[in-house]
Every structure is written in C-alpha cells, then in structure tokens.
Amino acid sequence: MAALKAAHVSDVPNLDHVPESASLLSSRFSPRGVDVGNKSNVLKAGKFMVIGHRGSGMNRLQSSDPRMKSIKENSILSFNTAASFNLDYVEFDVQVTKDGCPIIFHDDHIYTEEHGIVYEKRVTDLTLNEFLAYGPQKDAGMAYKPLLRKNKDGKITKWDVNSDDTLCTLQEAFDKVDPKLGFNVELKFDDHIVYQEDQLVNTLQSVLQVVYESAKDRPIIFSTFQPDAALLVRKLQGTYPVFFLTNGGTEAYYDVRRNSLEEAIKLCLEGSLQGIVSEVKGVFRNPGAVSKIKDSKLSLLTYGTLNNVSESVYLQHLMGIDGVIVDFVQDITEAVNTLIKPVKAEEEVSSHEDTKPQFSQTELSFLLKLIPELIQQ
User: What's the mean pLDDT in 17-39?
Assistant: First the structure.
C-alpha cells in the first residue's frame, strides 16, 4: 500500500470544513501518571481500546434499531455478554443510595406506574431495598414495581428489552462479572445540583470502599463529568487513574470547565488527572486539541453515537486517540480486529522514534471527506 507522509492534526483547523490536502497525526498512548500506585497502568501502549457503553450498549427504547433494545443496560447480563467479545472494559454509571450503597444506574430519576399513575423518584433518595424493588426480581415470585423510563423527548415508556435483568449494585458487578474485564466506573452526579464538598466526599468514599475491597487485579478507570468530583477522587486515592468526561464544546454549561477540550486539559493538568473522555464530535470539530492532549501526556478516549460507525472509529485510531466507548460492541470489536492490527514488540520500540502513521492517499481522502457528513448525524 502506498504510503503518505502525515502532518499534525493542528494543520486541520476545523473538520466541519475539511481541506483537500489535510493529513492527520497519530501519537499512540503515552500514559500520564503510570506510577500512581500499582494499578494505574491500565491502558496498554499501542493498544487501541474498545469499551462497552453501559455493558453491551445503552438502551434507546424508541429506536428502530433492535440492537438498542437487545439487553438491559447497566446489568450483570449486559456486562458478561460484553465480556464474551474482544473487549477491554465496560463503562457503567455509579450512584449512591440514601443508605450509602453504590448502585449501577444511569438516570437521575427512576419511574414506575401504579393504577395508571406514573411515580417519579430521585435515585439517590431511595434506600438500596427501595431501588432494587424496581424491575424484574431475582426471585420470580417476588412483587416488584414496573420499571419505566423517561426518554429524551420527555415521553415516559415501559423499559422493555429483549433480554431483561435485575438492577444491580457495584458490589455485585465485582462479584459476578468476568474478572478479566476492566471497569470504567463513571461517577454519576446530577447536572442540575450544586454539590458541597462534603456531599461529594461522602459519595466518593462509599464507592472507593467497594472498589478497594473487591477490585483485586481488575483494571479500573474512574471518570466523571463533575469537575470537583474528578479532582476529589484523585486526591482521595492514588491507585487508579481518573479521567475527566467532557462534551468537548458540543454543549454549553454554567461551569466553564465543562465547555471545551482546552478547559478539560487545564483541569487535568491542575489536578494531576490521567486523561480525558470526550464526546467524539468535540474532537472531530477541534482536531488540533488531540496533539495538545498528547503533548500534555494525557490519554484520550471518546464516546458518542459516531463511535458506532466503524469508519469513524478507524479514523480516531489514525488520529492517535487511545480508545472508544461504543454501543454496538460486537460490530465495533469485529471491525477493530479487522482494521487495526496489534502493535508488535519491535514496532513499539520504533514508535518512540516516529509516531506518525502511514496510510494511502485514497484511505485518508475517504476518511476526511466522511467526517463532515458524520458530525451532522
């Protein structure tokens, strides 16, 4: 295959308007803080990571794609199904109940219906037993509350999937999920609440207690959209890496630290965090930030619906992004195995001297022209 000389991503000012001659830089993972404790080297140099979103993928109940309603998200069944593929981690959302138990659930509020009336509760206002009473039960004979979900359009619908499972705790995930599978633990907080430091510390300590008692040799990454929680969990422990989650400028927030990749870099450097997890559209619209992140010796992962498109995932590999969080676990792991070959030992050595990729003009042209179409989806 004919080779093409690569240029820095900073040469491409904005991928909404892609110049014909643009090229991309690849600089493979250079971990920040790999000497933090003895568990922090969780991302392997040269290894492109695939992470299952909420296990085998999130549920989008109104989607016409059956893959979005296949298995209950954030469940033991979903995690172990994901583990059956060539997957590095599963990502899931952790909140803490009113009585101090870390549970796995994405939404801030939980819904049920009784006698035609819909009831809404804040998840963190429930006790553990109250939370576990929603949805199917381990004992088929036990009474339970039907589980509903509020969709993005505001409609509340039954949480119907092809393969259902019970709600679960963080402890259960450690006990029942394949121990070789890494956990990307997203520390979930409500965007509409201003948290005091003691609230954050209490929540984080509850999560850390379970992790330290149960993780053993399992790879762990912490991540969160809450800037103060990210800084605090880094201060509270030095064993596992902490990544800051950001929309990468695709949405605006009152807290400016959440509003751009540049602000994310600044937060990571100030708080000695190890990496960033960005909405992939934020990276595609600001590709110059990739080299800034790499120059800062931070890792970079992405999330978002474009990560369910194999061409988009491959382009990120070429850009030097370290991994992707995906919903279509089987499809994307198969595509990655086909498109991205593992780095051999001798290639790892040479990569320190020249981290720029070699790929064909046709391949590069196709991928660059694809981006403006992708980011409009």
Answer: 35
- Rounded mean pLDDT, 232-250: 97
**Total number of domains in the chain:** 1
Give SS3 for 347.
helix
Is residue 301 within 8 Å of 324, Cβ to Cβ? yes
Q: Which domain holds residue 354?
A: 9-106+167-374
Q: Flag whether 224 is in a domain.
A: yes
Is 156 a member of any domain? no
Indicate if the pLDDT at residue 272 is higher than 60: yes
pLDDT of residue 342: 67
DSSP 63: -
The tens digit of pLDDT for each residue in 119-132 reads: 999 999 999 999 99
Helical H runs in the chain?
76-83, 128-132, 170-176, 197-214, 227-236, 261-271, 280-285, 288-295, 310-319, 329-339, 345-351, 361-374
Specify the pTM.
0.84
Question: Which residues 6+ apart lie within 8 Å of 94 measured at CB?
Answer: 102, 103, 104, 170, 185, 186, 187, 188, 207
What is the rounded distance in angstroms from the CA atom of residue 244 to the CA atom of residue 242? Answer: 7
Number of helices (H), then strands (E), in the chain: 12, 14
276 with 246: CB under 8 angstroms? yes
C-alpha neighbours within 13 Å on the C-beta side of residue 312: 26
Question: What's the CA gap between 235 and 33, in Å, rounded?
Answer: 13
